[in-house]
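Lab notes, practical 5.
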Amino acid sequence: MNEAHLIDRRTVVTGICASLAMAAIAPVAVGQTTPRNTKNAEGLQDPVSRYPKPPFEEQSQPWPGLAGKMNPKPDHGEKSYKGSGRLNGRKALITGGDSGMGRAAAIAYAREGADVAINYFPSEEPDAQEVVALIKAEGRKAVAIPGDLREEAFCRQLVSKAVEGLGGLDILVNNAARQQTKPSIADISTEDFDATMKTNIYAPFWIIKAALPHLKPGSVIIATTSEQAYDPSPDLYDYAQTKAATMNYVKSLAKQLGPKGIRVNGVAPGPIWTPLQVSGGATMEKLKNFGAQTPLGRPGQPVELASIYVQLAATDASYANGQIYGASGGGGQP
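Output from the prediction step:
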């Protein structure tokens, strides 16, 4: 190599090194005028201030209530949940899929690649149609099946219609629930008690029995239980015991169905902003301060549980069986 070439190489290398050195010290030299790497900073959100905090305005709706009429409206992930194909080709049936955690799960499942059937009470049609539109917007099948879960015949029909509409079934989410606050056991009529038991306990029993012949190894059953299963409120006597029973059937069925390759798990929310609260599930005083007692100082939003329902349904959670995943803002079990 001649001397001219050596000089040229030294010049180029020297220039590159100088440029790299300047790039390394530039942020120090120019101070705050250089944009920061905000990728991580933008990903961090303070959970205390992320969503609305009490006090909330007094509001009441006839049971079972509509999310669309709540103030503030709950966030189910309509704009925020981003999928990544974790449930491609899966087929899910979700009870109570019009609002609350059921709606959040339905949106998330569709954006993760699943076809989804939702059940809801007929008066919840406005909320349900919003969910159907969101599922279809993802290019997935959406099957709407209104009806009363307190009727055994309908529960069997629900499964049949879901299987027919979806072309199969491998995710079953028993989420629908009835919650009515009563100050004393003396205030709960036999009719009220019966309605709560049939919605929260009988319906999952009927639905699971009807679904089992369709569930192959790798399928999952997910139940929505509650912090009420562990720390019951005095004014939710009947509701709380149904959630304790739900927690228990998850653990029992997980042992029974695990050898068949069917996983059974549960989600136990704390105070979550859903129509349950404004349609008789909470007193006006409790509603105004709903969630204030948690360390985060606010109720949770349904979207904050969406990823839990996805995780429990996903194949990569194949060793999670008989588990209860909590989300209560730091306020209790599990």
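Observations recorded by the TA: The beta strands are 91-95, 115-120, 142-146, 171-174, 220-224, 263-269, 324-327. Confidence is low (pLDDT under 50) at residues 1-40.
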